[in-house]
Amino acid sequence: MHFDVATLDGSLCYKLMTSLVVPRPIAWLVTNNGAGGQNAAPFSFFNCFSGNPPVLCIGIGRAPERRKDSLANIERDREFVVNMVSEELAQAMNLTATDFPPDWNELAMAGLETAPSVKISVPRIAASPAAFECRLREILPVGQGSGNVIVVADVVAIHPTVCLFLPIADFLGAVREHPSILAELYLLAVEREEETRAILDEETATVEDFDLL
Ligand SMILES: Cc1cc2nc3c(=O)[nH]c(=O)nc-3n(C[C@H](O)[C@H](O)[C@H](O)COP(=O)(O)O)c2cc1C
Prior knowledge:
Elements (H helix, E strand, L loop, with lengths): L9 H11 L6 E6 L5 E6 L2 E6 L2 E7 L8 H9 L1 E5 L6 H6 L10 H4 L4 E2 L8 E2 L4 E12 L7 E12 L7 H10 L5 H9 L1 H9 L12
Antiparallel strand pairs: 1-2, 1-5, 3-4, 4-9, 5-8, 6-7, 8-9
Helix pairs in contact: 5-6
The structure holds flavin mononucleotide (FMN).
């Protein structure tokens, strides 16, 4: 079975892509709204594409009448914060997916406290399990006339709430103790702990192990 994209209905194409490329983490993007407050919105077309230097990409689609507020704000200020989402924050996150007018302070509306960033003027969401301060590198249009863009950003500061530098077993333990921390993100890792441990306990292979000669 296959679908030829050249003749595929657009909404079915979207459904196939979003249901087959899973799981996807959510970037909860905060920007300054130009009126003294903040805009927030979730984006699941998101991931990191380089660790050093750290680079994140976000896919922003076309809005029916105007550009999405997040994109307009990024184009104007060239900075934003990507916040990760825990289960407790899911409801507030959903609220910020509503298409509110651009000058409404969506963080205040969702009852979310902010914490100052260190390198940029956009604050982060205080309750978020991890946040990345970002500066815009470039905006890549996707195709002609689709209105979709890929925002490529340099991460300039990182705020993890849990220590990610723990040995893997301790880290998995910490996640199990506080399941809401990064729950979505690390579910897979926790479920596969036994398997992960077994792999880690094995000695690292060397070239000689592969008997290539
Ligand atoms: C879980 C979730 C994931 C979403 N992912 C995306 C995405 O990847 N790209 C996109 O353009 N919109 C996405 N949306 C829709 C935007 O969040 C929505 O259009 C929002 O109103 C944009 O807000 P803004 O105009 O304030 O930027 C997503 C919505 C939800 C609830």
